[in-house]
């Protein structure tokens, strides 16, 4: 077998592997919605515009990136959101890089708890059920939002598939299969 043919086979094999990998990861990834995209969680940003540009599904993540010495995140109900109050908050975070699992189909309300809520540091989102829409439609929507949403590899299915690839590929290579 000439070396150029071998290279060709390797290319085809890698393309197929990449394709399989793409489809498997598509089906088992959750989206991480980074609040404010590259602007993060800061005063003076209209997060309604950001939220309107996203579609949230159950088991997606919302994440807040900010200076932890200056800001924080409180999960509140609608009154808390409307009035910028944290009384009876449902949760609070202050690590500066907080990932929050959206595991219910409902409206979520987040505000900053140090007064900056009045300067726009508030965001409300509606989480949709996973209605198993066609994969192509999700992919199309996802790809149009790459600047503000990054995929996260989370589920065990993905990890075990990766383990399988790691385990099997060297065997194929070793057998001179490609
Ligand atoms: C943010 O944008 C929305 C949609 O255009 C608008 O309705 C809302 O008044 C804006 N909020 C602020 C605080 O400017
Ligand atoms: C807060 O906002 C709600 C509307 O969501 C309103 O009914 C309520 O009177 C406001 N004030 C307080 C102190 O909750
Ligand atoms: C929000 O929580 C506050 C404090 O727990 C409560 O007084 C208020 O009735 C709640 N509002 C809504 C709309 O659930
Ligand atoms: C923040 O959440 C913790 C529990 O996670 C709670 O003990 C604490 O009282 C909360 N802080 C405020 C200011 O609500
Ligand atoms: C969602 O997550 C919270 C905290 O992680 C947990 O207490 C709650 O039971 C979960 N709800 C569902 C429907 O899984
Ligand atoms: C794609 O996004 C559009 C608007 O941004 C929305 O109407 C539609 O339901 C979304 N489709 C899917 C499958 O997420
Ligand atoms: C909405 O998404 C589009 C496409 O990714 C992007 O160009 C635009 O800047 C976004 N708008 C906001 C307000 O985030």
TrEMBL record:
The name this protein goes by in its record: Lamin-like protein
Lineage: Eukaryota, Viridiplantae, Streptophyta, Embryophyta, Tracheophyta
């Amino acid at each position: 077998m000439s070396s150029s043919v071998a290279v060709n086979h390797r290319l085809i094999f890698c393309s197929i592997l990449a394709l399989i990998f793409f489809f498997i990861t598509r089906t088992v990834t959750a989206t991480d919605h980074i609040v404010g995209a590259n602007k993060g969680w800061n005063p003076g940003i209209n997060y309604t515009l950001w939220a309107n540009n996203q579609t949230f599904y159950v088991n997606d993540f919302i994440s807040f990136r900010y200076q932890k010495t200056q800001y924080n995140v409180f999960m509140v109900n609608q009154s808390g959101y409307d009035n910028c109050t944290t009384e009876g908050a449902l949760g609070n975070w202050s690590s500066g890089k907080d990932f929050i699992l959206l595991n219910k189909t409902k409206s979520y309300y987040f505000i900053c708890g140090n007064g900056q809520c009045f300067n726009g540091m508030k965001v409300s989102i509606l989480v949709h059920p996973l209605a198993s829409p066609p994969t192509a439609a999700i992919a199309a929507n996802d790809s149009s939002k790459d600047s503000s949403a990054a995929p996260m590899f989370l589920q065990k299915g993905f990890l075990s598939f990766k383990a399988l690839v790691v385990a099997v590929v060297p065997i194929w290579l070793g057998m001179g299969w490609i």
